[in-house]
Design a protein that fits this description.
Layout lengths: L15 H11 L5 H10 L1 E5 L4 E3 L7 E7 L2 E6 L5 E7 L4 E2 L2 H6 L6 E4 L3 E7 L1 H6 L4 H27 L2 H11 L2 H5 L2 H8 L3 H16 L1
Antiparallel strand pairs: 1-8, 2-7, 3-6, 3-8, 4-5, 4-7
Helix pairs in contact: 1-2, 6-9, 8-9
InterPro entries: cNMP-bd_dom, cNMP-bd_dom_sf, RmlC-like_jellyroll
Protein name: Crp/Fnr family transcriptional regulator
Organism: Stutzerimonas stutzeri (Pseudomonas stutzeri)
Length: about 210
């Protein structure tokens, strides 16, 4: 599976190419020829905080590896309310799997929650390259498995747990979010209002300190 824990540290002394290869190795790619080809193909982008990477309604032509920073996926309701779907940190692949598989526009927006440094690749390398390279196919398979497991776990938590259990699940499985994601975004992710999350954090904190 793709890494699901905390971010992979990348030294500021690495070049963009070296940083990318470090992250790709962590994702399971060890073929030196493939690493070299992907590094040559990559286009590196600095993205400012709150800048949109993929907008809902667009048909994405690229996917990305996060070399530095944090991004969020979110839905926008007709009334303008945002609902956070997921957060991805350093070392993660980001893009729209459903758009890739169905050749349809993305149904959610991907935006930078922190200043980001991304390596961009054309979607076509998955469309054509997987048949030619087993490691690339394995990477895509792990990406699909990771998304399926993450969505299944979060769906179960949202549908079957009360607000306190949801927050405790977050602390157990994705604690790094608490230090990097603003509270109002966390509340949306957990399916509650910011004020409710604030009260819950105080109550849980008091229980932990006893």
């Amino acid at each position: 599976m793709c890494p699901v824990g905390g971010p992979i540290a990348v030294s500021a002394h690495y070049t963009s190419r070296e940083a990318l290869q470090l992250q790709l190795r962590a994702l399971g790619l060890v073929d030196q020829g493939l690493l070299g080809d992907l590094s040559d193909l990559a286009r590196f982008h600095e993205v400012q905080k709150d800048e949109v990477i993929i907008r809902a309604g667009q048909l994405p032509t690229q996917f990305y590896v996060v070399l530095k920073g944090l991004v969020r996926y979110y839905y926008l309701s007709p009334s303008g309310k945002e609902w956070n779907k997921a957060f991805f940190h350093e070392g993660r692949l980001i893009g729209s799997l459903s758009s890739f598989l169905r050749c349809q526009p993305c149904s959610y927006t991907i935006a930078a929650l922190e200043p980001c440094y991304l390596a961009a690749f054309p979607v076509s390398i998955f469309q054509a390259g997987c048949n030619a390279n087993a490691q690339l196919q394995q990477l895509l398979n792990r990406y699909v498995q990771d998304i399926m497991l993450r969505n299944e776990q979060r769906e179960a938590v949202l549908l079957t747990c009360d607000s306190e259990a949801r927050y405790m699940w977050l602390l157990e499985h994705q604690q790094w979010l608490v230090t990097r994601v603003p509270q109002y975004h966390l509340a949306s992710y957990l399916g509650m209002e910011p004020a409710s999350l604030s009260r819950l954090k105080r109550r849980v904190g008091a229980l932990i300190q006893r």
